[in-house]
Amino acid sequence: MQTDIDPRNLIGRKAFDRNGTKIGTIDEVYLDDATGVPEWAAIRTGLFSRDAFVPLEPSELVDGTLHVPFERALIKDAPDFGVGRHLSPEQELQLYHHYGLDVASPPTVPDHDFGKLAGSEET
Known about the structure:
about 120 residues, 6 strands
């Protein structure tokens, strides 16, 4: 997705699945904590239904509408975390797994000693 788009301009836009079927209307946009780049959109899937989170990275903004490369059924079955709150790293991981997207794992710390243990004295 284009990263130069103001996330506020996404709110209220229509969203469509990979087949061109309307999913709903974008209610909220969630930014990455570290980069500030728009990462997730919460889409209201119907008048009395909930919001479904969709990843913005593989999605495209075309002629003022968001096109999400997933089936509507998969989107509607996404984990429900409610809107208006911060997504935790664990919740984001659940969403990435739900959509079958690879997530870069955090760098591993080398397994070696960084110093002496407190109270141990080597001579």
